[in-house]
Design goal:
Two copies of one chain form a homodimer.
Chain A lengths: L3 H30 L3 E7 L5 H12 L5 E7 L4 H7 L5 E5 L11 H8 L9 E5 L16 E7 L6 H4 L1 H6 L2 E5 L11 H11 L5 E3 L8 H18 L3
Parallel strand pairs in A: 1-4, 1-5, 2-3, 2-4, 5-6, 6-7
Helix pairs in contact in A: 1-4, 2-8
């Protein structure tokens, strides 16, 4: 029994992921056809994703037409916080989909139906707070970023390697708290480099605004590449 | 397609959970036969579980024979940190079990084979850092506790209600950081009470030791009840 159960679970997960992969490719084509740059934002619960997005949306507002799909197991708290920025926001509660610990491609497809994709340049997907499963579920995004709060300790990159290996950038957030923590930032950065050599890391504070300009520039560069590829 | 995928996934998860439930009951009988009180410790990544357990083990050491099974997707960092306390520690890496985002009952069964259960009073299981899936997987424990760091914001109890509803106690950790945060503790406590009225909440700092005595007393009371039930 103890020998069989894990194998069975792995096969089951394999089937779910194969279905997801197909639907993610459909999403990717749909987004590309409308020139939408899609950024999947992932992290532990409470790393500050929503506050970061609030500040990021404000910085992008004059230049870029943005929207957000935000996933939580329950509540519409994050959508309410993001709606004050004035951009279109769709809240997904995964308890309607079996309480999933991640956003799957079919959920993004459904949520995107509530958005006018033709009017959107940049779509953020704020994933469910979780460093494990969201890493495995392609949703049809162009860029994947992981937010890591300095309050979470240094070693998360090596403890959750799939997440850090598959992301295109990392944000080391809440750096305003560094003076109050026993935190070895050099060690955290070394762990990130160990798992994903060369990945850009932005040191940010959503509270003070520190470091947000470089992150916004990175987003704008990605958006420009997408536009150039689409011939726009 | 968009209509079918979630239902299929829910059925699949249902089968996995039914297998898990049977194996959890076997674990529970095995632990009860040897008088071992089992505490499942769950939280987000980086909430301070390992530091809390280090301090807790030190406080229990003169009175209680303890051990720890610690789960991570990858690395043995936490086992190394806990081993310095001198108690037996078994590290489980779920990347050997399909990269699971939780500890399942069959994994605990396997890990417990490496422990001398007859010599253990209190077994801590430090689960994988995740507020979603571990809540669904019974491992045969007597008590379930959730650790919530004050750096994670106030609303996690309502965003991850299954976790807070199924736990027997909550630890509000890192309270030494309160002076440096915009944190509304009364609101966080109200959210916990909303999801799980009457659940004990211990306000702790693993760094300063504040609040640990009440938590240790709660553990000792649970251990005493288990011993009384077993007629020891």
């Amino acid at each position: 029994m103890a020998e069989k159960a894990p194998l069975r679970e792995v096969r089951v997960v394999g089937r779910v992921l194969a279905v997801n992969e197909r639907m993610a490719e459909e999403n990717r084509r749909r987004f590309a056809a409308r020139g939408v740059f899609v950024v999947n934002v992932m992290s532990s619960p409470g790393s500050g994703k929503t506050s970061l997005l609030q500040k990021t949306l404000a910085a992008l507002a004059p230049r870029v037409s943005a929207a957000v799909i935000v996933g939580d197991v329950a509540t519409t708290h994050d959508a309410e916080r993001l709606a004050v920025t004035g951009v279109p926001v769709v809240q997904v509660n995964t308890d309607a989909f079996g309480g999933d610990c991640h956003l799957a491609a079919h959920v993004i497809e459904r949520a995107a139906e509530d958005l006018d994709l033709g009017a959107i340049d940049l779509l953020f997907v704020e994933n469910v707070g979780n460093l494990v499963c969201p890493a495995e579920f392609d949703i049809g995004e162009d860029a994947r970023v992981v937010v890591l709060s300095v309050t979470e300790g240094e070693d998360k990159p090596v403890k959750y390697p799939a997440m850090f290996r598959t992301c295109h950038a990392a944000l080391l957030n809440k750096i305003d708290l560094l003076p109050h923590l026993d935190y070895d930032k050099a060690r955290a950065l070394a762990y990130i480099r160990q798992v994903h050599p060369g990945m850009p890391v932005f040191e940010t504070s959503a509270r003070t605004g520190e470091g947000l300009a470089a992150w916004v520039d990175w987003l704008l560069a990605g958006l420009e590449r997408k536009r150039a590829a689409a011939g726009r």
